[in-house]
């Protein structure tokens, strides 16, 4: 849904990873915590948008609702489907799932204790009105130290995966580890690769709140939501972004 007049609202992008019924840690949020988060957002008048909504606003000028918030989940853990998905439906919320496509149906080898990731069949069962899919590189690469040629190969493999399996997706990327090249020349080469491959947006961490039309579409900030955060900390992060 789009509003008749463009909104000056800034956009908050929240970053989640995995979910548990009872265990919380740096990357794991419990279902009770997530329920409270969704309730806080709804009660405060935030409107859940999709990444595609935002891209329509950025590229075509379509208006966003007041107080837009974009929920994003990294890595496509099975718990995103089994635990987070029912709560998203309950609250009428929407989210973007960033998928490292080489690991679909496998496990998260980058974690200290690997966890099961969604299969192609499970990704296909996700209601697109709740979950949209996007890129998290093919091999969960840290682009900070990846060559432009390897980036291009990796991005093409990621896109080919979605096309091969007939999965609807948004051509936008979340950087694994938040990693982008620090060297300006290397960074410009990465941007060239993105433009050549028609990548529409890319997300870092950064913990800041974004302008509705970001200055750099390939450096959009997300707010890191942790299972170790208190509800007070969650509220402050949503309100102000970076806490220090």
What keywords describe this structure?
alpha/beta, TIM Barrel, 34% helix, 18% strand
Summed up:
By secondary structure, the protein is α/β, with parallel strands linked by helices. The protein contains seven helices and ten strands. The protein has one domain (12-240): Glycoside hydrolase/deacetylase (TIM Barrel, Alpha-Beta Barrel), CATH 3.20.20.370.
What is this structure's SSE topology?
Blueprint: E1 12-16, E2 18-20, E3 28-30, H1 31-43, E4 47-48, H2 51-60, E5 68-74, H3 78-91, E6 95-99, H4 120-125, E7 131-135, H5 148-164, E8 172-174, H6 184-196, E9 201-206, E10 220-224, H7 231-240
Measured distance between first and last alpha carbons: 35 Å
- Give the number of helices: 7
Largest sheet data: 8 strands, parallel
Low-confidence stretches: 1-7
Helix % is: 25-40%
The figure for the number of domains is: 1
Classified in CATH, the superfamily is Glycoside hydrolase/deacetylase
- The chain-level structural class is alpha/beta
How large a portion of the residues is in β-strands, by DSSP E? 15-25%
* CATH class identity: Alpha Beta
Structure description:
Helices cover 34% and strands 18% of the residues. By secondary structure, the chain is α/β, with parallel strands linked by helices. The protein has a single domain, classed as Glycoside hydrolase/deacetylase (TIM Barrel, Alpha-Beta Barrel). The strands form 2 sheets. Strands 1, 4, 5, 6, 7, 8, 9 and 10 form an 8-stranded parallel sheet that branches. The protein has a two-stranded parallel sheet with strand order 2-3. Helix 5 (148-164) runs parallel beside helix 6 (184-196). The longest helix is centred in the middle third of the chain and has 17 residues, at 148-164. It starts with 11 loop residues before the first strand and ends with a helix. The model is unreliable at 1-7 (pLDDT under 50).
